[in-house]
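Hi C.,

You asked whether I'd gotten around to modeling the 370-residue construct. I have! Everything is below, sequence then structure, no commentary in between.
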Amino acid sequence: MTEPPVTEPPHGSAPVAATSPDVRRQTPADVRRRAALAGTAVSALLIVAIVLGSRLLRDFDSALLPYAVATVFLAFGVAYRYTVWISAPGARRLFKQGWRSFFSVANFRKAPTALPKMIATYLGFQKFLGARSHARWAAHQLIFWGCVLAALITFPLTWGWFTFTSSTGSGPGYEMRIWGLKVLGFDSLDIVGWLMFHGLDIAAVLVIPGASYFLWRRMKDRGAITGQRFAYDLVPLIALIVISVTGLLLTFSSIFLHGGGYEFLAILHMVSVVFTLIYIPFGKFFHIVQRPAAVGMQLFKYTSRRGNGEEVLACRRCQEPIDTAPYVENLQGTMRDLDLGFTEGPEYCPRCKRVMRGNAYLTHVKKGFK
């Protein structure tokens, strides 16, 4: 492994590694400027999509304007933080390698079913969580699918892309239109109609037990309590429960209370939803946006291990197999990007790393007992 060339430093300074212009790190101001431009562009595209998708606002419901404005802020925040995130050397390498694996024809030929399988298991059913706890996996699945269902219903309705119209004005026959085009007709009194009009209630019923379990765990589990932060760990769960409960109360009010308290509940529900949408890019919910990027890296690991003739490197200390050469080289590249100064680390197995760390501690920090 060759080290980067060393340039001649000014008199009295330490040598520094030469950095080519294409890999020179950007300043924080450059990153923020690029992130702001990305956020502005994505927000503008969303506004254009809302205008065009609602047929020049003919299908746009002005009562849902606060929700639509919140989604524009959401788009800006996600694009801004995502740009900042992938500007870091490690994340940028992960991002590029993931997309390279995603569009690789060679990977598709070697494992044509790998990508859909990983999307289903890693993103959809999150099987990696089941190895930690079956209860946590089940609760996370309830939250995940409940939020997915709510997003698929709420966003298009908010943007005016979906509309439900009745020729009689009050049903029971309705038509669902997407971008002004009729998709299907249904009777609001049958099972299909009930599911169409109560999809958000079903989503709430899924989210409440899942979020309640994690909130209970955050208050009872000593390991979770030790490192938790109120704004980062508890606020997202409280927000999900408030959104779900107020949404169900709106349905309860309209059916059983003849609209009693509906206006107050509608305002409370709107405030909680708007707050959560704006919070997503800057809190714990941002992992929803980050997670798909990891699928490409998992695909890279999977295909490199299945590669024809790929060399599997052995630990430099115990000679146990570690991983394929491309994966180890990728880790070493990330460590060089971060200037960690220990690019040989990925060439050792986890057990040997622990042994070496312990020996270094005994040698340089504390001799131990005799």
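If it helps when you're writing up: DSSP finds 15 helices and seven strands in the chain.

Thanks,
B.
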